[in-house]
Design brief:
Layout lengths: L1 E6 L9 H12 L10 H18 L7 E8 L4 E7 L8
Antiparallel strand pairs: 1-2, 2-3
Length: 90
């Protein structure tokens, strides 16, 4: 799964970053309950969203955006700082 979230320029606005991520993940989370996916995929999606929520709480993000790339089933996770703002999206 990949998710992109903007990181505001104003440091005071960065406190809202976890909320921005939650809004994007709200679009993805229903898939973790989708019975057409196998159990491994559903569990991976749940773990992916939780890992992203943990990572976004770190205070290391600079203005621009952050891209999260995750597949817990394959033990893959990467959070990449992007130099420009991109639209929040899954």
């Amino acid at each position: 799964m990949s998710v992109y979230v903007q990181v505001p320029i104003d440091p005071r606005d960065r406190a809202g970053l976890p909320g921005r991520l939650n809004s994007v993940l709200d679009q993805v989370e229903p898939m973790a309950e989708e019975r057409s996916l196998d159990r491994t995929a559903r569990l991976s999606l749940r773990a992916d969203t939780e890992r992203m929520r943990e990572e976004v709480r770190t205070e290391r993000w600079r203005p621009g955006s952050v891209g999260f790339f995750s597949c817990s089933a394959r033990d893959v996770f990467e959070a990449v700082q992007l130099p420009r703002a991109v639209r929040d999206r899954p």
